[in-house]
Design brief:
This protein is of the alpha+beta class. The protein is 31% helix and 20% strand. Helix 4 crosses helix 7 and helix 6 packs across helix 7. The chain binds zinc ion.
Amino acid sequence: VPELPEVETVRARLEPILVGRRLDQVEILDSRLTRPHDPGLVAARLLGGRVGAVERRGKYVIVRFESGCVLLIHLRMTGSLLRVHAGEELSVAHARAVVILDNGSAVVYRDVRRFGTWLLLEPDEVGPYLDARLGHEPLERRFGPRVLERSLAARRAPLKAALLDQRVVAGLGNIYADEALWRARLHPLRPAHGLDAAERAALTRGIRSALRTGLARQGATLRDYRTPDGATGSMQSEFRVYGRAGEPCPRCRAPIEKTRVGGRGTWYCPACQPLAAAQAGLAASARSS
Ligand SMILES: [Zn+2]
């Protein structure tokens, strides 16, 4: 499932393919992609538009047209965008939309599970739409312990569940939340409002470190994630805890455990991510003795 590092990798690869190009043909093959809007009408409105910029916010790819209109693409579970060079075979399995550019190359949107969405917005609709759904970008300077203090203050939910809320940290998902909590030595079931200042600082560093590692590895390839040039990421070989139940913690060698938080599989080290503060104290004294 693409999270911030995967979506940012897709954005960076898509940018040189799309910017400055005009959409000469647009075919939307699956009405689920644009619902509740009619796919034919969306295709007609995209036709002839010239791309001014390709940006990202949270897990959205933002395609800005020179007209001011914006196409918001959310890949959800299994969406991906593939570039097809002029003259190459255009038929791609699970294709849901095909865009042919004015240089003859094409971009095909494929999606096995069909949860992805394309939403075409007017210029004045984009900001309010995203602001209502997304909190701070975790890699921007404005994000930090103070932002976390405000956004977690009223939340009694488990910390992991709070981190998956896109209004708390934009772009974080199941993988990078687990990796960030391990880096911060915080148990995923800690009450979100119960962190102290040092723990919020550790969480900020953990989130950024996990995401930057993911970006450096071009994302994690599990199932269908591909960059527009068909490449895969290699973050999956860097996971410290995600998907590693029973394997030794890279920090303390205790076996990684798996639980469920808010219905999501969750991996953590029971020794260096203790649930209670008392346990943390015990663990610290055990380490120092
Ligand atoms: Zn450990």
